[in-house]
Amino acid sequence: MMSSFFPSKTMSLYMARMFLTRTFAILGALVLILQSLDLLTESSTILAHAGNGDAEIWRYVSLRVPQIASTFLPYSVLLGSILTLSQLNQNSEVIAMKASGLSAHQVLAPLLLTGVIVALLSFGFNERIVTRATSTLEQWKKVSYAPLPIDSGDRSNVWVKGDNNLIQVQQVRGRGDAAQLFGITVYERRNRSLVSILTAPHGVRDGNGWRVDNAERFTVATGQKTKVGTTVIGHDLRPDQFTLAHVDADSMDFFTLNDAIGDLKVAGRQTDALEGALWHKLSGPLSAILMPLLGAVAGFGLARSGKLFVRAVIGMALGFLYFVADNFALAMGNLGAYPPFLAAWAPFLLFLMIGEAVLLRTEE
């Protein structure tokens, strides 16, 4: 019964091959052009470090190309869909398929199924290659393209919440129970009001808490500073809550990011922006399924009426409007204006309904 929803096997393979060829040809051209332009600005910075040469340039290219390909794959799918459907329309192949009794959805079925395959490939590519390339490139940029230092696990400017207090640590060295805290500031609160500020130069693990030495406390009400000496702070705060690195969603795969979000929630940190990015790791690749539907307007109507170009422009406008709405929703999610799930999925679901409405209105 599923096979009856598609055109013939020969026609389906023909359409899928056209779609994939045009999509990846456009992607290759975009990557080549954009990587060349990117090198014009970055190559001088890379070569500015003593000892860097052609090997470092090619290393940068190997790390940057996956990012560009991942970013512009949805655009390539959109343009590939429009070019494929436009050619099928111009050659009267769409008219032949509709004359044989196929509906507009059946005509699009091979492209939609191919879009599912592209979405799965995109998700796997992002998870296995793009995240690792992004992580390495970001670290390399931070040291101005010098040789990458070995990550010793040290963390800086860490904030956690414990005992209803906010704790800031300037530097964390080591991991687990061997972790050491340096430059400690504890904002002691009562009923969400700041009561005092405890500062200490050093702290170590002590049972379920953290023992700090040479501590001083500034009392807000009196404005006086008193020496506390040795005391214990952060009861029931685990070492991993301090040793969590800055979480970059683009540098983590789906499951690693999901675990990091769980750790951050336990640490009392805000995770809305990261949750939006987590959901977008799913909704982003799925845009490959949406693009043929948005570009479908280019595949129908009489090509000889002179409106094929107008239809292609409308398809491009719908596709690019989706990308604008997607970026806007993510920005609103980062600001906390949208819930994470809504920020990631609302544009996809909205334009899925818009694409279906246009197709049903004009062709079905």
From TrEMBL:
UniProt entry keywords in alphabetical sequence: Cell membrane, Membrane, Transmembrane, Transmembrane helix
An individual GO BP term: lipopolysaccharide transport
Transmembrane segments: 107-125, 308-325, 337-360
GO cellular component: ATP-binding cassette (ABC) transporter complex
Cell compartment(s), UniProt: Cell membrane
InterPro entries referenced in this protein's UniProt entry, alphabetically: LptG, LptG/LptF_permease
Signal sequence bounds: none
Primary location recorded for the protein, binned into one broad class: membrane
Membrane topology per record: Multi-pass membrane protein
Name listed for the protein in its UniProt record: Lipopolysaccharide export system permease protein
Classification of source organism: Bacteria, Pseudomonadati, Pseudomonadota, Alphaproteobacteria, Sphingomonadales
